[in-house]
Amino acid sequence: MTAAEKPSVLFVCVHNAGRSQMAAAFLSHLSGGRIEVRSAGSAPADSVNPAAVEAMKEVGIDMSLEIPKVLTTEAVKDSDVVITMGCGDACPFFPGKEYLDWKIADPQDVTFEKTSKIFSDIETRVNDLWERIKGT
């Protein structure tokens, strides 16, 4: 990657309906377009978890128009950093990519309060990632 190219990050979880959507929305918000951000799932749900949408609304980020997307080989190939959140070996591996596995609870079928706590974990990790990426 040259200095003129935008870094790119892909967040992956099984359903692409909660964790990966929240992480992608938050990193997009923080970076203000300076990072290409993607999210996907190995078995995408039909819609984004309403509790995740509500938790993000609480911090001023609108995810209401997001839809779960299927994980593709191209999305992984086109990303500098691939962060998995439960998809395990469903993610293709390419040399030269940075892979991180974040152990984050799944917000599926939990209360808004629990989803807000999950977002706090995501927020901390995304802030750390953003600080590292913007420093390079």
What secondary-structure arrangement, pairings included, does this model have?
Elements: E1 8-13, H1 19-31, E2 36-41, H2 50-58, H3 73-77, E3 81-84, E4 98-101, H4 112-134
Parallel strand pairs: 1-2, 1-3, 3-4
Question: What do these coordinates show?
Answer:
α1 (about 20-30) links the parallel β1 and β2. Strands 2-1-3-4 form a four-stranded parallel sheet, covered by helices on one side. The chain is built from four helices and four strands. α1 crosses α4 (about 110-135). By secondary structure, it is α/β, with parallel strands linked by helices. Helix content is about 35%, strand content about 15%. The chain is globular.
Give the gist of this structure.
This protein is an alpha/beta fold and 136 residues long.
